[in-house]
């Protein structure tokens, strides 16, 4: 950075650089010009920028605070997207249908879609991907068009066709994604 700085009765032409060794900015004064227009070349002189202006310090603090808030927000996104059992009825619920969208292990919960006999397409919310995979239910294992039964808890909003599933039965095999709830 280069520029003129007014300091009382003189104007300084200076270059500022960052020193890796001291981890500080250093300013090298190129020449001094008095207000009467006479320029002088000073002896080489370096000035450590220890006393940064309040404005610069506040800018640094505000930038750091913004980074912390951003990091906190981004790290909480999966926690916001992850949901528990509160949005679902306490009563056990079971639905059968044909697979419309196969098992996906993406997102905070694995999921699939089935079309029930009444024609409604249901979101089948499974356990988190690791837990669903440990139960043996992996992507591609149940083909589209296969007949499955999902057992769990229906969403509290009757207009949402969604079930938080404890286990899925397909072709005689039971995938118990929440064995501690069954």
Elements, N to C (H/E): EEEEEHEEEHEEE
| Largest sheet report | 5 strands, antiparallel
Shape: elongated
Radius of gyration: 33 Å
Termini gap: 68 Å
Instruction: Please give the CATH architecture of the largest domain.
Output: Beta Barrel
Beta content comes to 35-45%
Low-confidence stretches: 43-51, 77-82
Main CATH class of the largest domain: Mainly Beta
Q: What's the total number of strands?
A: 11
Total domain count: 2
Helix content: 10-25%
Structural class determined from secondary elements: alpha+beta
Instruction: Give the overall average pLDDT.
Output: 78
Question: Would you write up a description of this structure?
Answer:
19% of the residues lie in helices and 42% in strands. With 182 residues, it is of the alpha+beta class. It folds into two domains: 2-60, no CATH class; 93-181, OB fold (Dihydrolipoamide Acetyltransferase, E2P) (Beta Barrel), CATH 2.40.50. Strand 9 and strand 10 form a beta hairpin. It is elongated. The relative contact order is 0.11.
